[in-house]
Amino acid sequence: MLYNDYDDIVIYNAYRVKAPEGARVIDRIQLAIYNIEGNKMFTIAFRDGTHSEKECEGVAVFNEEYLRDPYRQINIKSKIGQTFMDFVSISGDIRNSGHPYLTLDEDTAENVTADSWFLVQLRKFLDLGIENEEFFTVSSLMYFLHISGLQIPAFYHELIYKKGKENTCLEDLVPATEGMDHFEHSMRAFLASGNKVFQDPLMTYECETIEDACIASLHFLITHKFHIRKCKNCGRYFVAYLRSDTEYCDRRSPYNVNKTCKEDGPKRTFDASVNADTVKKTLQKVDIARRMRVSRNPDNADIKQEYEAWKKSMRKMRDQYYSGGITAEYFLDWLEAHKRYNQDWKTK
Fold this sequence. Notes:
Blueprint: E1 2-3, E2 10-12, E3 24-26, E4 42-55, E5 58-69, E6 74-78, H1 82-88, H2 100-104, H3 106-109, H4 117-131, H5 138-148, E7 155-160, H6 182-193, E8 202-207, H7 210-223, E9 227-230, E10 237-240, E11 252-253, E12 256-260, H8 261-296, H9 301-322, H10 328-337
Helix pairs in contact: 8-9, 8-10, 9-10
């Protein structure tokens, strides 16, 4: 299929990355739509590959996704898998998140929640694949869909003319030789045109539901061997486009709005590891000192009972620290305040 209608696009700016000059910018909270009843079909198209036109940093890489619904006048461009990763990462009120999927499938959107059965199963599948990439195969995906009662939506490929090349006659690019029929002439002309007339093909899925959109995105990511990861800073899913061992996404850090997770995450992880090591050593030191006091006073039941009471309180504080309920600093302050025997422990 030949198309040239992917020009009037809206840049999907969920990460709030600077958009190209002149582009109309929206984000997940601002989506202008025109809801026209009667047609529920929308499409998701993906373009992945490279071309030979050199840029300042080397070979340019195609990484494009289009969400399109001509009846609602929606044409949203983003990075491959970006809208899907954002959707499965929503943990709060999905219906009021403003995510584009909800606009494209308003009927399903009324009932979708963060703990909907399909989303729960989908996240489990993603987690399995992140742990072991052998799950990210077409056969594993097909089995997941089979036991879920779902299937991959219909898809096809589109060949897109470049701007200004819509009226190009390929046969004019290569002279015909004697004995060459029109088919051979046309095919040789297409080969000779390289990337001058057509863009890399789009792989387009026909969707009717949010489930279709998710499955289409996951199918494309798996068949084209993209690496799906979960950010160690914000806990949300993302696509590691450049390096398979990437641990942090490009979203704004929930702990520092002035930095991305990629910028903020490594420092926070390092600080957390240092704090964890300090907590571990301090806890061991306090516990050893208290146990030694008990062993040196075997006939003092009061000291032993006070130690058991302290140990019970310490375990509660430790569990809160491990679960993120209290900070390392708070736990360390508590250990400092309770490191010695307290003769008034019965009145506490």
